[in-house]
Amino acid sequence: MNSVRDPRIAIVGAGLGGLTCARVLQQHGRAVTVFEREASAAARPQGGTLDLHADTGQAALRAAGLLDRFHALARPEGDEWRVLDFATAAPLAQQGPSASDTRPEIDRGQLRGLLLDSITGGTVRWDRAVSGVTPLADGTCRLLFADGTAEDFDLVIGADGAWSRVRPALSHAVPGYTGVTFIETGFDHCDTRHPDLARLVGNGSMLVKGAGMSLVAQRNSNGHIRAYIALRAPQDWHVAAGIDLGDERAVRRHLLMMFDGWDESLRYILRNGDNGFVNRSLFVLPASHTWEHVPGVTLLGDAAHLMPPVGLGANLAMLDGADLARALVAESRTDDAVRAYESVMLPRSIEAATASAQGLDHLVPAIAP
Ligand SMILES: Cc1cc2nc3c(=O)[nH]c(=O)nc-3n(C[C@H](O)[C@H](O)[C@H](O)COP(=O)(O)OP(=O)(O)OC[C@H]3O[C@@H](n4cnc5c(N)ncnc54)[C@H](O)[C@@H]3O)c2cc1C
Question: The whole model's pTM is what?
Fold first, then answer.
């Protein structure tokens, strides 16, 4: 049974949730191995900026003993929002950094680097894609790798994101399209090369809403602005529009047509990106996603509760990782620890996913706001 003193623990996925879990386990002297599909930490750019909330992401970093190092890297001034009018770019609402509930911003790559540096060398086995898991009759779990090999563990933690290969052991749920696509673009050295845009965005984030379309732009570190052109549209919107997504000029022309009537300072985002366009269809799990406990396997982060990207996903993934690790340290039986974790994490996630679905409706309203 999986009540052994030194359980063999595998985490699938070296994202923010999996790494937080590994770090907290190691802080308490527990052995853990992380299996990651990518070939190295530098295999792909990690994406934009994240604001870490006091009660979730920051709480997880405190549990990991990394809060001071986080604050040394974070941008407190980035916790600033402004909403502009689409026709004039005039400010409609503005919110500065809050003294009582600070949410400093950090680049996702910096945060992942901080977590990776904090764990023992060799913990992450790179280039080890997992293809599935099989819970075994004795309460342990078999991890199946894409290269055809297998290894048994007392606990397998699926921290492998939206398209988790661990999730099918627990639930039949499959992510569905939200009806919203983000088209991502970026601006380098914004203060010198794109000064008007830099002024519009300020130190934090800028949001502009229209009917079924929005613009979101966020300042990252090193003078980079990342922008999302959000469309409420079918997943294959480009097929219907006769556009090849690889044809940057065609995408730009189409977007400029769609954003006709928007202020030219905002249309600048469509015209002048330095990094082309990346089409990101947004998928979610059902907000009520849950499962019956299965010994030897559990999930955290997006694998458990993929929700719209309105500011909670990474925060919750990290809190899940810290909570699960702390439960494993506190309980003598692995299975009791996992049950305790799931009893807290699942209801918390349902509440957050429901709020995030509403958040997406506010971010990209179907009708003119
Ligand atoms: C555009 C956008 C903006 C966002 N902004 C925010 C924000 O501002 N704030 C916020 O809190 N959240 C935000 N999110 C959500 C956030 O990115 C996710 O919720 C978070 O990354 C989830 O972390 P995770 O560790 O669960 O999964 P991931 O970060 O997805 O990590 C999963 C890891 O598992 C690995 N993996 C996958 N499959 C396998 C396999 N078969 N075998 C081995 N390894 C595997 C992957 O390579 C990856 O390293 C945003 C998301 C998007 C798309």
Answer: 0.95
